[in-house]
């Protein structure tokens, strides 16, 4: 019943557009229509990238990818490490509902700046750090890359 009422409201809003915009704000109309411009949940992934000598790796590009089911993978979600080798990735909402996110996803070093001379690595095993009020934070801890001997 509620859905029917919301649908009818949406039809009226679209039909009479201008007349209703004086009465309700855009945010109120979006909420009544059941659309979500407001983020319902948030999933963050954090980690630090270190060389085998425990130095932080600054400016490396990190990729995050998940199995979304039926032989499909998500596209790479990318981040760049800061001066301390840390990065944070805010996952897009279509990945929030993946069951066993910690097992379905991988982190990969996509590129490392030349001064570091480290090889790329795939990292598995993210862990849930906290979960409350629609927000989850996962961590991969410290990801250590082996330095190349060139």
UniProtKB/TrEMBL annotation:
<feature type="signal peptide">
    <location>
        <begin position="1"/>
        <end position="19"/>
    </location>
</feature>
<keyword id="KW-0732">Signal</keyword>
<protein>
    <submittedName>
        <fullName>Pollen Ole e 1 allergen and extensin family protein</fullName>
    </submittedName>
</protein>
């Amino acid at each position: 019943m509620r859905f029917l009422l919301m649908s009818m409201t949406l039809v009226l809003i679209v039909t009479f557009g201008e007349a209703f915009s004086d009465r309700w704000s855009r945010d109120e109309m979006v909420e009544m229509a059941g659309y979500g411009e407001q983020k319902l949940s948030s999933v963050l992934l954090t980690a630090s990238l270190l060389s085998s000598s425990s130095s932080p790796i600054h400016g490396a590009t990190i990729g995050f990818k998940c199995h979304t089911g039926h032989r499909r993978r998500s596209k790479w979600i990318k981040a760049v490490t800061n001066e301390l080798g840390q990065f944070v990735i805010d996952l897009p909402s279509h990945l929030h509902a993946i069951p066993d996110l910690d097992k379905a996803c991988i982190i990969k070093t996509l590129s490392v700046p030349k001064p570091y001379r480290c090889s790329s690595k795939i990292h598995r095993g993210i862990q849930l750090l906290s979960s409350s009020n629609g927000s989850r934070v996962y961590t991969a801890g410290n990801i250590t890359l082996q330095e190349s001997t060139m």
